[in-house]
Design a protein that fits this description.
This is Aspartyl/glutamyl-tRNA(Asn/Gln) amidotransferase subunit C. Heterotrimer of A, B and C subunits. This protein is mainly alpha-helical. The chain has helices spanning about 5-15, 25-40, 75, and strands at about 85, 85-90. The chain has a two-stranded antiparallel sheet with strand order 1-2. It has a domain at about 5-40. The relative contact order is 0.08.
Length: about 100
């Protein structure tokens, strides 16, 4: 597949990127280089290869999934401009 200048202009418009007319040949060339690289990747045999998220084997740190209240009520309310009886206090907006 080859990208011409008209297609490059259309892609730039869809991506909402302003590209001057004199820069379209270079953009089309870059798109063609990207597509060429993708075609090279399609030639790689990946049958039997499991997907991975890192080149080094590692496990994510896990914690027990338990519900807690956070035990930080005073710390959270200390940031509030007005707090009363353990809650945020806000001005009345409905009469």
């Amino acid at each position: 597949m080859s990208i011409d200048q008209n297609t490059a202009a259309k892609v730039a418009k869809l991506a909402r990127i302003k590209v001057e007319d004199d820069a379209l040949p270079a953009l089309a060339s870059e798109f063609n280089a990207i597509l060429g690289f993708i075609e090279q990747l399609e030639e790689v045999d990946v049958d039997g290869v499991e997907p991975m998220v890192s080149v080094t084997p590692m496990r994510l740190k896990r914690r027990e999934d338990v519900v807690t209240d956070g035990d930080q009520q005073e710390k959270v309310l200390s940031n509030a401009p007005d707090a009363r009886e353990g809650f945020f206090a806000v001005p009345k907006v409905v009469e």
